[in-house]
């Protein structure tokens, strides 16, 4: 693999985990306060589950974007950027702004963006598309959870 490809992989990892880190900084202070006070459905996972799951998902997201970039170029990565921006916006809406209603709209758009990303990535890299499947499943579950929290509160 060329030096350019290694650098690009590093950039995808840095960008993805920077988004994750900033979102985490917005989320963490709210876990024990505002979020703890919300009514949650019976299927809400324990808080400790979210960190490890999202860490793995962000790694898959970064590698997927890099593989799609290698195979399809910059045009394909526009879809990747959009889904990552919507992912980040959800943390702001839900945790920082305490707006599960607006976060629900965002997560619906995020699910659609992930589906679009998978469809576009599939044309240039099957691996890039498949790496987003767990992300789509978890985000779809998160959308149901978001809806339930909005309804209960």
Number of helices: 6
Please tell me the total number of domains. 1
Shape: elongated
> Termini distance?
51 Å
The ordered string of helix (H) and strand (E) elements is HHHHHH
Count of individual beta strands? 0
Short summary:
With 153 residues, the protein is mainly alpha-helical.
Structure commentary:
With 153 residues, the protein is mainly α. The chain has one domain (3-38, 48-152). 87% of the residues lie in helices and 0% in strands. It contains six helices and no strands. The chain has helices spanning 3-35, 47-72, 74-96, 100-124, 126-131, 133-152. Helix 1 (3-35) runs antiparallel to helix 2, helix 2 packs antiparallel against helix 3 (74-96) and helix 4 (100-124) runs antiparallel to helix 6. The longest helix is centred in the first third of the chain and has 33 residues, at 3-35. It is elongated. The chain starts with a helix and ends with a helix. The mean pLDDT is 96.
